[in-house]
């Protein structure tokens, strides 16, 4: 796995230390061990973890500078993209957020066991977390959580004006983006900028959707989840 990661990061223009590689391995081992008793990931081959999880998530670092910035990972699941992002950029202030308690307990055990700092794992629904953390973060990031019009209402309220929401999507997301245009504008976001990338060592092309927040989100958002899903913006 280390050779794949080293050459992959180098292809992406990212530098990674031996200590960071060891941490990525440590996190992977903890995830696979816990995955035996808890559903964390369907990807269990080390090579696939390297490409489809670790290198994929590292693509965020090619699009923005997270150093010393506050970042929330909305719907982080087993820690993606947040954990690799934080291991590769340890001075970002990261909040891992998920509505499933057992995944947050797993992540807390990784934070404690690996001695990580500048990172917290929070059990909450994003739309409820916004009540106390509205416009608090420089960045929100998210992968594989919801359609963009719904995800924007979960994520953009957490971002400061001038900050950015980055959604990790597939390359086939043109229609989804078009359908989210109105929602993004209503929530205070600028029109998205899209960056497509191919994950090193694969022929998989994914997409970063970068949404700059230009003005505060109106107070009526986010709505309770039943309203968001029944009547998406
Ligand atoms: C398919 S998983 C994706 C996990 C991870 N982001 C990844 O790419 O591997 C979606 C995660 O989003 C979480 N989730 C869904 N809706 C949420 C919400 N409103 N607030 C917080 N977490 C949410 C779920 O509990 C689940 O862990």
Write the layout of secondary structure elements.
Layout lengths: L1 H10 L6 H18 L10 H13 L11 E5 L7 H7 L4 E6 L2 H14 L4 E5 L2 H8 L3 E7 L4 H8 L3 E12 L3 H13 L6 E6 L6 E8 L12 H6 L3
Parallel strand pairs: 1-2, 1-4, 2-3, 4-5
Antiparallel strand pairs: 5-7, 6-7
Helix pairs in contact: 1-3, 2-4, 3-4, 7-8
Number of helices: 9
**Residue windows where pLDDT falls under 50 for at least 5 positions:** none
* Corresponding CATH superfamily: Vaccinia Virus protein VP39
Output the structural class: alpha/beta
Question: Strand-residue fraction?
Answer: 15-25%
CATH class: Alpha Beta
CATH topology: Rossmann fold
- Report how far the terminal alpha carbons are from each other: 42 Å
| Bulk shape | globular
The count of β-strands is 7
CATH architecture: 3-Layer(aba) Sandwich
H-E string: HHHEHEHEHEHEHEEH
List the strand order in the largest sheet: 3-2-1-4-5-7-6
Largest sheet report? 7 strands, mixed
Indicate the mean pLDDT: 97
The ligands found in this model are: S-adenosylmethionine
Secondary structure: helix percent:
40-55%
**Radius of gyration (Å):** 17 Å
Number of domains: 1
Written description of the protein model:
Helix 7 links the parallel strand 4 (137-143) and strand 5 (159-170). The chain has helices spanning 2-11, 18-35, 46-58, 82-88, 101-114, 126-133, 148-155, 174-186, 225-230; strands spanning 70-74, 93-98, 119-123, 137-143, 159-170, 193-198, 205-212. The protein has a single domain (2-230), classed as Vaccinia Virus protein VP39 (Rossmann fold). Strands 3-2-1-4-5-7-6 form a 7-stranded mixed beta sheet, with helices on both faces. The chain is globular, with a radius of gyration of 17 Å. 42% of the residues lie in helices and 21% in strands. The chain is built from 9 helices and 7 strands. The mean pLDDT is 97. The chain is α/β, with parallel strands linked by helices and 233 residues long. The chain binds S-adenosylmethionine.
């Amino acid at each position: 796995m280390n050779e794949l990661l080293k050459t992959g990061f180098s292809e992406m223009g990212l530098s990674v230390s031996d200590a960071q590689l060891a941490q990525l391995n440590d996190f992977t081992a903890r995830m696979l061990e816990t995955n035996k008793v808890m559903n964390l990931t369907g990807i269990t081959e080390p090579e696939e973890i390297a490409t489809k999880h670790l290198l994929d998530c590292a693509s965020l670092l090619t699009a923005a500078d997270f150093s010393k910035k506050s970042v929330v990972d909305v719907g982080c699941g087993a820690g993606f993209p947040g954990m690799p992002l934080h291991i590769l950029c340890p001075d970002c202030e990261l909040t891992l957020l998920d509505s499933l308690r057992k995944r947050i307990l797993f992540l807390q055990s990784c934070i404690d066991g690996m001695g990580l700092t500048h990172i917290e794992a929070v059990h909450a629904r994003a739309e409820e977390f916004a009540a106390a953390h509205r416009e608090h973060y420089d960045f929100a990031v998210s992968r594989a959580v919801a359609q963009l019009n719904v995800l924007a209402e979960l994520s953009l309220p957490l971002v400061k004006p001038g900050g950015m929401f980055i959604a990790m999507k597939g390359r086939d997301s043109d229609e989804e983006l078009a359908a989210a245009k109105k929602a993004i504008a209503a929530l205070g976001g600028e029109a998205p900028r899209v960056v497509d990338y191919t994950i090193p060592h694969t022929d998989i092309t994914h997409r970063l959707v970068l949404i700059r927040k230009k003005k505060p989100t109106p107070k009526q958002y986010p709505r309770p989840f039943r309203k968001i899903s029944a009547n998406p913006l």
